[in-house]
Structures are given as C-alpha cells and as structure tokens.
Amino acid sequence: MVLSMWQGKQEWIPNGEAAWCEIWISSNSLEAEASVRRISQQFNISLQQETLNFPERKVILAKANRNMLIELMESGPYIAEFRRAAETALFLLIWKIVNKLNGLKN
C-alpha cells in the first residue's frame, strides 16, 4: 500500500531500520500539519520541528520505516506522498535552522 504513495525507487523504502523520509502533506493548512504531527506521535515516528512550506503542500522530515509509513498513511487523510529524504531537503532544513538560530543571536 505504501508503494502507491512512494515517489522514487522502491528499494529506497526503508524496510527495517528507520530512515529519514519526506512526508508530503496534501494541504498547506496548519490543521493538516497538526494532524500529521499528532498521528506521528501516536506511532512514535520522529519528526523534525521545521516544516518546508510550498503554496499547496507542506513537507516534514520523518525518521520512519515502511510499517510506520503505512500506519501514518492509514490513520489520516492528509498524506499526499512519501519520498526518501534528499540531501537537498536536508541541506535546506539545516540552513533554515541555522538562519533561525543566527537571528536569535542578533
């Protein structure tokens, strides 16, 4: 079932050990993000605090495996797709965090 939501090579789906994945939320609303975060917490899925925002989507990085992604997908209406976390996405997230921290220092 997770295959229908997975973008990218199937072998990139983390089967056993959890790996960083992108959760693409089907709405950019705060309600949708809060719902995904609440459900993730119920299944002990680690999420980054930061969210990448796009006009019609939000992306949250999650450390999850196949079973966790299935639980997340089956428990709420807001999942648009999953992807293996790209180095670019990780870089953007780290850059956003560093800039926020630098802003707090000034």
What can be said about this structure in brief?
This protein has 106 residues and is an alpha+beta fold. It has helices spanning 2-5, 30-42, 66-74, 87-105, and strands at residues 6-7, 19-25, 46-47, 52-53, 58-64, 79-84.
Question: Could you describe the 3D structure shown?
Answer:
There is one protein chain. Strands 1, 2, 3, 4, 5 and 6 form a six-stranded mixed beta sheet that branches. This protein has a single domain, classed as Peptidase S8 propeptide/proteinase inhibitor I9 (Alpha-Beta Plaits). 18% of the residues are buried. 42% of the residues lie in helices and 25% in strands. It contains four helices and six strands.
Full CATH superfamily name: Peptidase S8 propeptide/proteinase inhibitor I9
Shape: globular
Multimer state:
single chain
Structure summary, number of beta strands: 6
What is this structure's SSE topology?
Layout: H1 2-5, E1 6-7, E2 19-25, H2 30-42, E3 46-47, E4 52-53, E5 58-64, H3 66-74, E6 79-84, H4 87-105
Parallel strand pairs: 1-6
Antiparallel strand pairs: 2-5, 2-6, 3-5, 4-5
Keywords:
106 residues; alpha+beta; 6-stranded mixed beta sheet; globular
